[in-house]
Amino acid sequence: MKTMLLLGTSLVMLVSASQALAGSIFVTGHDPDFHALSTEGPNPSGAININDVAIKFIMDPAFNTYVAGGNQHFLYVECDTCTVPGGHVNGALGITASAGGFPAGTTFETHGAADGLATALTQLGTKYSAIVIGSDFGGMLTQAELDLLNAASPGIISFLNSGGGLYAMAETTPANNGLASSGFFGFLPFLVTTSPVGEFETGNTVTPFGASLGLTNADINGNFSHNVFTSTGGMNVVDIDAGGEILSLATRSQVTSGGVVPEPSALLLISSGLAGLGGFMWRQRHRG
Known about the structure:
There is one protein chain. With 288 residues, this protein is of the alpha/beta class. The protein is built from eleven helices and twelve strands. It has helices at residues 2-20, 32-35, 44-58, 65-68, 91-97, 117-121, 143-151, 153-161, 208-213, 217-220, 264-285; strands spanning 23-28, 73-77, 107-111, 130-133, 165-168, 193-194, 205-206, 228-229, 236-240, 246-253, 255-256, 259-260. The strands form three sheets. Strands 3-2-4-5-1-10-9-7 form an eight-stranded mixed β-sheet. The chain has a two-stranded antiparallel sheet with strand order 6-8. A hairpin with a 5-residue loop joins strand 9 (236-240) and strand 10. The longest helix has 22 residues, at 264-285. The radius of gyration is 20 Å and the shape is globular.
């Protein structure tokens, strides 16, 4: 019985350690960097809330060790030297439009492949407490940025496992007007996506988990999705489309190239269950 109780205690200690080092990740098929601009409707207030919720999630000082240490700067990734084609916007403007929801004092820098992105990625955890990756349709993420991000995957995963945060928006194929053509979300190699077929602006639904983050159905409808996720990689589903396809995922977990490990809350349930079982068996042995 002492072994059982010690096991429960060990798991509680593991929960504490995991929570301190859990990466905060939010990925979405929406492109709220585009729709947050009032000129790009039809639901800029919903897009602003998606951005605010996602960035608050990845920069929560209770989980992001760098923000807790006083670093409230994040890196925003898109091509900031490219000519903006039709159907796209400078996504940094959409992030700025959402600034009312950021933690006080937060600032960000934008870097693309031709403007210091390779160097900036080596500064995750020192200069930057989180990384926000713009959409490649709506926003201005090009293949050049995506290639650098994917090549930096081991470092990004290490950064997350040290308590950093990551928020990434829609990535779709050129046939759907995307600026990238391959390796979508390759910086988190366990994520698998596809471009949606016949997607609509209505009929999307926030899950109970998504609602717990502060999102509503009114936020996600009217904000088109340019990719869907075909697996979760162990993450929590935030919202789905009318056909049940996954539009957004989020988690606070340790990360591997194959997916995420159980969240601290799940480990807490396990440890609580074992501790409760230990107590029950102790009482059984000492009854009478």
